[in-house]
Amino acid sequence: MLPSSTQTDNRLILFINKSFSAHISGNGDKEFSITPIVTETYASCGIGLMVNNQIFDEYGSYLPRDTITGWRATRLLLAVNWKKRTWFRKRIKWSIDENTLSQFYHAAMRKTSDEDRAQGRNTVISMIGKKEYDNIFRLPIPETIISTIFEGQTREPKLCVCPLRAEILAGTVPKQERFQLLGIH
Questions:
Q1: Rounded CA gap, 137 and 8, in Å?
Q2: Using CA atoms, how far apart are residues 148 and 81, in angstroms rounded to an integer?
Q3: If DSSP codes are grouped into helix, strand and coil, which group holds residue 86?
Q4: For residue 17, what are the CA distances in angstroms to 26, 52, 73, 143?
């Protein structure tokens, strides 16, 4: 985990979570060491994956620029048992494919109202279970992520503070006096 932002080319890496091993679709049975990250570029803010210290894939949104959803998506990815497992009496392997990041990013949003988000949530729940999914949503948001929101107020476009409000209401972030600087009272 990084204490603050790290810049690589035109991208900020706002948070690095621990690595896990998984298969990547189209690469046979080879396992890769994959590191989930929270990234920000001018075009988007969201989740990314690093393989061999290189950005492999990214997904996020231009607005809202939501680091909390990106962080929670990294936690959801870590909760998956990416090894072979039994599912409906068949041996299958979960693997990273072109839809993985969008599904995990949408599943990590506190509010999942549209069909894409609901589909992502349902897919992730099928992989980790409802209990683990709910537990991840109860985790306290790390100070590192809260600090990135403050740092992100100095850049254009600014990082969104609305998710921070939602987390205060959910009880995963204690209300602090300094939040008044962000317009949260």
A1: 30
A2: 29
A3: strand
A4: 25, 14, 10, 14
- Read out DSSP for 8-71? ETTEEEEEE---EEEEETTSTT-EEEEEEEEEE-SS-EEEEEEETTEEEEEEEESSS--HHHHH
Q: Which two tokens stand for residue 138?
A: 């109860």
CA distance 154 to 93: 43
The per-residue pLDDT for 3 is 34
pTM of the model: 0.88
Calculate ∠ Cα 55-59-64, nearest 5°. Answer: 130
At 91 the three-state DSSP class reads strand
In Å, what is the CA distance from 127 to each residue of 8, 39, 64, 183?
Answer: 32, 24, 27, 38
Residue-wise pLDDT for 44-76, tens only, equals: 999 999 998 899 899 999 988 999 999 999 999
Amino acid identity of 5? Answer: S
pLDDT, tens digit (0-9, with 9 covering 90-100), for 105-146: 999 998 766 776 788 899 999 999 999 999 999 999 999 999
